[in-house]
Write a sequence for this structure.
DNA sequence: GTGGTCTAGACCACA
DNA sequence: GTGGTCTAGACCACC
């Protein structure tokens, strides 16, 4: 009914390797951080998302459940899903520690595969450099 | 019984998240790269591996089949499994490209979460530095 | 439920001596060759195949993995398994070269058994003729 | 002891795809057919064969057991293995029917893989022709 | 002893 | 629902 303000539009990168539900969570988080989404804003309904990006409803459900579990968002039955109050602070911290852990896991994998430390270091440096150039492009 | 040349001993990291059979493949690849395994060398039999690292025979078999499919190794029924001739070239590329892809996915995840490029870059640099210090320790 | 497009139905020859998983691979290859299966078409799910031909899920999975390793097919977790784009070229060669090798082995066996070449030749011709008549029957 | 007359020397084709024990059987059969081996002739002992062609003793045993089961040969404990009397007739017939069955199986495989009859026929004819040319070479 | 195939089941992440 | 990994065990041909 109150579909007037679409608040956020999801987009999908099918080739990124990232799980779909994770992309959705990330985009909401991103929206909150850059101010597109504010406390109390309504997220599109599951059905709307499904028609937008042609994805399985269960996948959207999972993303919404995940966000709710973190406290990023609150779902009210029969009404909709809304951005929580003051989610900004921990959102960022939570994300960083999660990413840091993932990067640690990546390094552990590389080491346990027998790659030399110097090669791993150079891969990290190379990625870092590429990223810096991409932004100044 | 006295198989004399133990060629390679597998070790398992149960917490790495990497599938067991992939760990085995990586370790053989590693062994070939550092010269512990050479063309014609015999890998331990499936049953030997099973008794070494307490894993299901099928899992080991799966790893061996994978290596054979890539051409890294050749299995002869009733005889054993042997390192192929001239496997060196692609061996290195395979593993590195896999890890590079995983790192790219990590960056994609970070970017799509709304993390600023500078933060990501600093995380990469920090990890790289930590790794270098760990080796000189 | 109403998956509508049955794309391919597997059949099994339990007495052919060919491993079940190889029969499945061959039949998909055949389906692609005769145009029943085209790029992007969905293969029946592992569980569907299981209920069709009464075989263990792992066996079907093995066949699907084999096809994926060759590049004939691509499996997406949670979605299904789909025929790859442009698989036609090598598809034909693969099967034929395999059969040709088997026929060479048969001849080698016959020769090394001391059968005269003329007898072998006549056996081949006889088989060939029988096959032609069977088709015009 | 009576190693004076070596009667038959085995050779192995490692790339033929034929099982080793089968090659041994075939060679004895061949030897009988061309008259190199006659009724009562002694086959080399398992140990002699092992030292000749570097093969597992069990493999030689299996070949000898197989020949004995067919009646081609008779083993006397502590003495040796000897060619049976009048083995020629059925030896040939037995072999031919066996080969014919194998060829039928090959055709069945080809058909069940979805190869067209005409392609199979042409493969057979091609093999037959190649074989004829090889002999007139 | 060796690897190869298959069955019968479990649990997981993802859609 | 989908495929992916793994366990526990069987039987086979071959060495």
């Amino acid at each position: 009914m109150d579909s007037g303000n679409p608040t956020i539009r999801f987009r999908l990168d099918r080739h990124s390797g990232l799980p779909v539900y994770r992309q959705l969570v990330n985009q909401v988080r991103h929206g909150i951080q850059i101010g597109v989404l504010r406390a109390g804003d309504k997220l599109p309904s599951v059905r709307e998302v499904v028609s937008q990006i042609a994805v399985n409803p269960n996948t959207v459900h999972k993303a919404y459940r995940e966000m709710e579990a973190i406290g990023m968002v609150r779902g009210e039955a029969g009404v909709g899903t809304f951005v929580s109050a003051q989610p900004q602070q921990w959102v960022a911290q939570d994300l960083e520690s999660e990413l840091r852990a993932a990067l640690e896991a990546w390094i552990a994998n590389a080491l346990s595969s027998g790659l030399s430390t110097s090669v791993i270091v150079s891969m990290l440096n190379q990625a870092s450099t590429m990223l810096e150039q991409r932004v100044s492009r």
